[in-house]
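Readers of this paper often ask what the protein records in our data store actually look like. The remainder of this section carries one protein's record, kept here as part of the documentation.

:::
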Amino acid sequence: MDPLVLLIAAAAGYFIGAVSSARLVSRVVAPGAAVTEETVLRLDGTDKTMTLKTVSASSVSAQHGSRAGFITYLLDVVKVAVPVAVAWRVRPEWPYYLVVSVAAFAGHVWPVYYRFRGGRGLSAIYGSLLVIDWVGMFVTAIGGMLFGLIVVRSVLVAYLAGVWFVLPWLWFRTHQPAYAIYAGVLVVLFTVAMLPEIRAWRRIARDGSWSDPATVMQLSGMGRGMVKMARRLGVLKDRRGSGGRSSP
C-alpha cells in the first residue's frame, strides 16, 4: 500500500465527510435562524425530555420537520458514498476505499470546520455500506432493529446494533482481515461517538414513560422511519385509534 496514496485517501475522506449537510440544509430551510448544537426532544404526551447534542439529520428533523431531516440524511449518505465509490473505482487493487470510509466517518462526527461538533455517524456508515456491500446495509439495519426491539427490547440497542452487526456481517461475506479491522474500527468509533446519548439514555431509561419503543423512537426522524418499518414487518403494533397518540 502506497503511504502517499493512503494519506491522500484519508485526507480527502475526512475533509469531504466534515461538510455538514445538517448545517447547509438548516440555512436553506431557515435562512435567518441560528444553527443550534443542542436540541431538546420531548416525549409525546409527557413532560419528559432528552437533549440531543448533535448537528445531524435527527436534529434537523426535530427543528425543521421530517422532510428537511430526510434530505439531510440523504446528503450525508451521498457525501460518503461518492468518495468511497471513487476510491474503489480508481484503486480497486488496495482497500483505500476502506480508509476513505473511516476518514469520512471521522470527519462527519468530528468536523474541523465546525469546532469538531457534528453528527453521530450512522448515515456516514450506511453511505459506505451502500458502496461496499449494499445488501449488508439493509441486513444490518433491519437485523439490528429486530434484535433491539424483540430480543433486548431496548430502543438504544435497536439504534446501535445495526452498526455492531456490520462486523460479523462483513466477516461472513468476505473472510478478509482488512474488512474485519475496518468494521471493528467503525464499531469502536461509532460507540465512542454515541457515548453522550448512551449516558443520557441510561439516566432516563429507569422512567416507565420511556418503556414503549414506538413512542420513544418517534423522537427522531430516523426513529420514525424505523417505527414504520417495524410496523410493516409486524414487529410493532399500530396503536392509532386506541385512544393514545402514536407516531405517523
Notes: Residues 240-248 have pLDDT under 50 and may be disordered.
